[in-house]
Specification:
The protein has about 425 residues and is mainly α. It has 16 helices and no strands. The protein has one domain. The two termini are about 25 Å apart.
C-alpha cells in the first residue's frame, strides 16, 4: 500500500521532472484548450437540451475519427522525429510535413463530400449539418497542426494567444448568438468552425512553406508510417471502442442516454485538464531520457511520471464520487441528473487513461508501438462483443461496464509489454548489479 508520504513524494518528483519552462507553458495552454472545450459542451448542452445534445454528440464523434488519424499519422511522429533530426535538416523536414498535412486535409474533404451526399440522400444527416461539420473538421485539423508545430518551435506565447482567442471567441459567440441562431446543431458547428479559422489565421505566419516533392515526401511519409502504423490502427480501434458504444446506446436507449454519457465524460475530463497538457510533453521527454540516459533514465522517468499521475487520478475520482449527481446538476441543470454512476465510471476511466500516457510514451520512445495496437484491438473486440450483449440488456449502464473493462484490458496489455521490452533491452552491466 502507498501511504500519504510516499504519494506526496511521488507527486513532488513528478513535478520536478515536468515543471520546466516548456511543460509549464504546455500545461497552461492545455487549461485554455480543455477548459474551452469543456465550457463549449456545457453551453451547447444547456442550450439544446439533453436529447439534442445526444444527437450533436453522435455527429461530433464522426469528426473525432479524422482527428485521431491526423494526430497518429502526422502529429505524434512529428513530435518524436523532429527531436531526432539534425538541426540543418529540420527546415526541409518541416516543409515536407507541412505538405503532407495539407494533403491530408485535402483528402479528407475529397472523401467527406461524397460521403455527406450519400448520408443526406439516405436521410441520415441534414445538409446544413453536413456542410458545417465538414468545415469544422477541416479548420480544426489545420489549427491542431499549427498549434503543435509552433509549440515544438518554442513559440509558447503565440500558441497561447492563438488558443485563447479561438476559445474566447467560440464561447462568447455561443453564449451571445446561440439563442438568435435558434440553438440548431448546424449553427453550433458553424461557430466552432469559424473560431478554429480565427485561431489558424493568428499563427499561420509561422507555418513552414509546404513542399511536395515525390521522393522526399514518400520517404517522410514512410518514416511516419513506420513510426505510427500501429498507433494509427490503434486510433481507429480506440474510436471504434468508444464511439460504437455511443451509437449502440443511442439505438437501444435513445439520444438522451447518449447526452448523459457525453455530459458525464465531459465533466470527468475537465478535472484532468492539467494532465492532458502532458500529452505534448511526456512523449518528447521520454525520448530525450532514452537518448541521454538510455534505458535506466527512461525507466526512472516513466516511474516518476506514472506514480504522480496515478496519485492525482485517484484524488480526482474520490472528489467526483463524493456527490456525482450534485456535480451534474450544478454544471448542466436538473435535466442531466440521474447519471451519477456514469460520472463515477468515467472518472475511473480517466484515471486509467492518465496512467496509460507514460506507458505508451515509453513504448513510443523505443519505437515499439505494436503492443498499443494489440491492446486497442483486444479492447475493440471486447467492445463489440460485450456491447452487443450488455447494452441491449442494461442500456447505458451496460455501456459503462464495457468501457471500464476495456480500460483494464488496455492497461494490462501495454504495461506487460513495456515491462518485457525494458527487461529484454536491459544491458548486461545493469543485470549484474
Amino acid at each position: 500500500m502507498i501511504n500519504q508520504r510516499e504519494m506526496a513524494l511521488r507527486v513532488r518528483d513528478t513535478a520536478k521532472v515536468l515543471f520546466s519552462r516548456g511543460p509549464l507553458w504546455s500545461l497552461g495552454d492545455q487549461i485554455i484548450v480543455s477548459g474551452g472545450n469543456f465550457l463549449t459542451m456545457v453551453i451547447v448542452a444547456r442550450q439544446v437540451g439533453l436529447a439534442s445534445f445526444g444527437v450533436f454528440t453522435l455527429y461530433w464523434t464522426s469528426a473525432l475519427i479524422v482527428a485521431a488519424m491526423h494526430t497518429s499519422f502526422l502529429i505524434l511522429p512529428m513530435v518524436v522525429l523532429r527531436a531526432q533530426n539534425a538541426q540543418g535538416q529540420l527546415a526541409r523536414y518541416d516543409s515536407i510535413v507541412a505538405g503532407l498535412h495539407l494533403s491530408f486535409v485535402g483528402l479528407t474533404l475529397a472523401m467527406w463530400l461524397p460521403l455527406s451526399a450519400a448520408a443526406i440522400a439516405l436521410g441520415l444527416i441534414d445538409g446544413s449539418v453536413a456542410l458545417s461539420l465538414g468545415a469544422y473538421t477541416a479548420f480544426a485539423l489545420m489549427h491542431e497542426y499549427l498549434r503543435r508545430f509552433i509549440f515544438l518551435e518554442d513559440r509558447y506565447l503565440e500558441l497561447t494567444i492563438s488558443d485563447m482567442v479561438r476559445y474566447l471567441l467560440q464561447l462568447l459567440t455561443l453564449h451571445l448568438l446561440g439563442g438568435q441562431l435558434g440553438h440548431t446543431i448546424a449553427a453550433v458547428f458553424w461557430i466552432l468552425a469559424g473560431s478554429a479559422l480565427v485561431g489558424c489565421l493568428i499563427c499561420l505566419r509561422h507555418m513552414p512553406r509546404p513542399a511536395v516533392e515525390r521522393d522526399e515526401s514518400m520517404a517522410v511519409a514512410m518514416r511516419h508510417w513506420s513510426s505510427s502504423k500501429w498507433l494509427l490502427s490503434s486510433s481507429l480501434l480506440s474510436w471504434l471502442s468508444t464511439n460504437s458504444l455511443m451509437y449502440l446506446t443511442g439505438a437501444y436507449a435513445g439520444a438522451a442516454a447518449v447526452g448523459g454519457m457525453r455530459a458525464s465524460q465531459n465533466l470527468a475530463g475537465i478535472l484532468g485538464i492539467p494532465l492532458q497538457g502532458l500529452q505534448n510533453v511526456v512523449p518528447t521527454e521520454a525520448a530525450k531520457a532514452l537518448a541521454e540516459l538510455q534505458l535506466k533514465g527512461l525507466r526512472s522517468y516513466l516511474m516518476k511520471v506514472g506514480g504522480g499521475l496515478l496519485a492525482v487520478g485517484l484524488v480526482v475520482t474520490a472528489i467526483i464520487a463524493g456527490a456525482p449527481d450534485q456535480w451534474l446538476e450544478l454544471v448542466y441543470g436538473d435535466e442531466f441528473t440521474g447519471y451519477g454512476l456514469l460520472l463515477i465510471g468515467y472518472a475511473l476511466a480517466f484515471t486509467a487513461s492518465v496512467l496509460e500516457l507514460p506507458i505508451s510514451a515509453g513504448l513510443r520512445a523505443i519505437e515499439r508501438t505494436r503492443p498499443v495496437f494489440v491492446a486497442y484491438l483486444l479492447g475493440a473486440v471486447f467492445t463489440l462483443v460485450g456491447g452487443a450483449v450488455l447494452v441491449p440488456l442494461y442500456g447505458v449502464w451496460g455501456a459503462m461496464a464495457v468501457i471500464l473493462a476495456v480500460w483494464v484490458i488496455r492497461i494490462l496489455v501495454v504495461l506487460r509489454s513495456l515491462a518485457i521490452e525494458l527487461d529484454v533491452r536491459r544491458p548486461d552491466s545493469e543485470l549484474a548489479q
